[in-house]
Amino acid sequence: MTAAVLDGRARAAHLRSGLRARVRALVDAGAAQPHLATILVGEDEASRIYVAAKHRDCAEVGIGSVRIDLPATATTAEVCAAIAALNEDPRVAGLIVQLPLPSQVDPLTALLTVEPAKDADGLHPVNLGRLVLDRTGPVPCTPRGILDLLTAHGVDLSGACVVIVGRGTTVGRPLSLLLTSRGVDATVTICHTATRNLAAITRRADVIVAATGRPGVLTADMVSPGTAVVDVGITRIAGRLQGDVDPGVAAVAGLLTPVPGGIGPMTRVMLLDNVVTAAGG
């Protein structure tokens, strides 16, 4: 048995086509072209590559973009001043502050400065609160991408046992809220470094989401045959990208996301979707 591929690249390409049509409809109706703004602090190479990719994605679907690059010496006050200016910019429908930030910048203060309606990442406490309450608002991009990819491949989540390995604030915790929301109705277990007998828990799962950032943490003996496995982790080892899921899992799982080409493209397209939705499209 070899797992079928949950192809994030193909699904994201399909969604981008729909986004292009939504942006055109907005502009044709007389609305301003929606813009995404990014704030990058410092010279982290991975962050620079990722931000550049976001701006290319915007151009592909017709979204305008504003890029603010600040020096690595920028203070929390300077970062917040840049955010405040973008909050007031009528062109900007959504904005993000690229993480990680230099140690002298407080990420929570920066996040709280973002206007919740322009929070393209969906990580502002106001928007996470909306997710808790099942209210409409920007939803974190990676959890949205995971849900969409599973649904598009016919995975029935209603009543399904989903095990999330990792309790981070960008994936694990908000994903648990999204999957247990009304209309999705999964039954979710979150596991972490203090979880006892992790393998016994993951073997009971219909769906496993590995989001720890630890390469190979999920091995074949931890997965029951036919399980849908979502690999969120991405680590560069000896020049190659490695996910949280050991390659041997492909011989057991029913569905499996590749690394790269799985959740990464889905996260990026959901960012664009959040921007277009914020613009009224």
Structure report:
- The structure is a single chain.
- The chain has helices at residues 8-28, 45-61, 76-88, 107-113, 125-132, 141-152, 172-179, 198-202, 263-278, and strands at residues 4-5, 35-41, 64-70, 92-97, 161-165, 187-191, 207-210, 228-231, 235-237, 240-242, 255-256.
- It is an alpha/beta fold.
- The protein has 2 domains: 32-115, 3-Layer(aba) Sandwich (Rossmann fold), CATH 3.40.50.10860; 142-264, Rossmann fold (3-Layer(aba) Sandwich), CATH 3.40.50.720.
- The strands form 3 sheets. Strands 1-11-8-7-5-6 form a 6-stranded parallel β-sheet.
- The longest helix is centred in the first third of the chain and has 21 residues, at 8-28.
- The N and C termini lie far apart (43 Å).
Intertermini distance: 43 Å
CATH homology superfamily of the largest domain: NAD(P)-binding Rossmann-like Domain
Strand arrangement within the widest β-sheet reads 1-11-8-7-5-6
- The CATH topology of the largest domain comes to Rossmann fold
**Spatial shape:** globular
Number of helices: 9
Unreliable parts: none
Beta-strand content bin: 15-25%
